[in-house]
Amino acid sequence: MRRLSGTRVRRAAWLAAAVWLALVSPAGAEAPPAPKTLSPDLPSLWAQHRESLRSPNPSQTTAEIVRAIRESQLDRGIQSLPAFSAALVEEARRAVRIHEYELAVDLLRGARDLAPDYPPVYFELARVYWLQNKLNALKVMDELASGVGAISQNFWWSFYKTGNFILLAITALFVSFFLGRLILLVRTTPLIRHALSEAVGGKVPGIVLAAVPWAMVVLPVVLGFGIAWAIILAALWMWVFLSRKEQVVVGLFVLFLALMPLALDALAVFVLGGSSPTV
User: Fold this and answer.
1) N or C: more exposed end of the chain, with fewer CB within 10 A?
2) What is the pLDDT of residue 24?
């Protein structure tokens, strides 16, 4: 039993972490980090020109940097350089902070040339266009649409966004079912109290009997077994007092609770690539 409860605790912790990532990450999301790739001379080429972005004539320097890296990229048949594109996006954000919007646009256009399938370039360019001039609404919409198109062409970005959507959907379903069970427990509490009163012969005050199902629901959470066990106990207390349709819904929710940790474990194994006891 101790081993089983430990497994439940770990699953509950994984669920909490997954929900936190789904709710917090998108808000401030800088989505998946760009891969760190490629030929040794490409990083050295970037390092050679990086500081020149802060030179007195930055726009011309930006074009030279992008052209040099782009030529090396084409010479090696590399279709996309997301790492360099991400670096240019960061430089563009620095330029925006000092209100150098033209420089930011040049940087982002260069980043787009280096990695046409890197979505943050388009979204950042849309933001810069909007900050530069509120009359650039059409340009903003066009870049946003291009960014969405880039997401559909980039497997890892599509996977990342789809995963967030799935986690949000699971969280919404979990919360809705949880609130529904609370409402049902409130509705069935008088019936449970009456049944318990008949069982003990009316020797226990009604308020104590009414508190029994709630105490049994809260106890697993206090003991660290997780909210899933609390919901299952609530379902057991209510089961005989529910209609057939309500029993079907509650049964499906209990099945959902049982399968959700397995689904999240499978998703984690897929994302992390699994593990092996041997090297």
Assistant:
1) C
2) 42
